[in-house]
Amino acid sequence: MSLAKHPASAVVSLGDVKGRPISMHLPPSGLTERRNVLRRDALVQRIVAEFDDMPGLTLSLRQTMRLLGVDEGACLRILDALARTGQIRRDSRHLYVRRERIL
């Protein structure tokens, strides 16, 4: 295998390098959904079912992360959304519990 030898005069500065434009093709809507909406909906249904199946269930954020197998940010967003919609509530100890339903 032979290596080509370049004469010293062939060295160019970075200022002499010409680039070419890069084009990106975006979907027609303009915005791309980065989240996996189906997986998120499945997680929401699962956590609601867990609280419904076990009325006395009390979970911390860390426990819920382990139960669902998701990172802290995603878990917190899911729990906060469920608390806003009234499906669960966060108590004074920052534990998540089922909101009692009035019959």
Descriptive report:
By secondary structure, the protein is mostly helical. It has a domain of 63 residues: Arc Repressor Mutant, subunit A (Orthogonal Bundle). Helices cover 37% and strands 8% of the residues. It has three helices and three strands; from the N terminus they run αβααββ. It has a three-stranded antiparallel sheet. The protein is elongated. The relative contact order is 0.12. The mean pLDDT is 80.
Quick structural overview:
The protein is mainly α and 103 residues long. The protein contains three helices and three strands, in the order H-E-H-H-E-E. The chain has helices spanning 37-53, 61-68, 72-84; strands at residues 58-59, 88-90, 96-98.
Helix content: 25-40%
CATH homolog superfamily of the domain at 36-98: Winged helix-like DNA-binding domain superfamily/Winged helix DNA-binding domain
Got a strand count? Answer: 3
SSE arrangement, N to C:
HEHHEE
Please state the second-level CATH architecture of the domain at 36-98.
Orthogonal Bundle
The backbone outline, from C-alpha atoms, is elongated
Mean pLDDT rating: 80
- Helix/strand-derived category reads mainly alpha
- What is the rounded distance between the termini? 84 Å
Low-confidence sequence ranges:
none
Question: What Rg, in angstroms, do the CA atoms define?
Answer: 27 Å
Strand content: 5-15%
Largest sheet: 3 strands, antiparallel
Discrete helix count: 3
- Biggest sheet strand line-up: 1-3-2
CATH topology of the domain at 36-98: Arc Repressor Mutant, subunit A
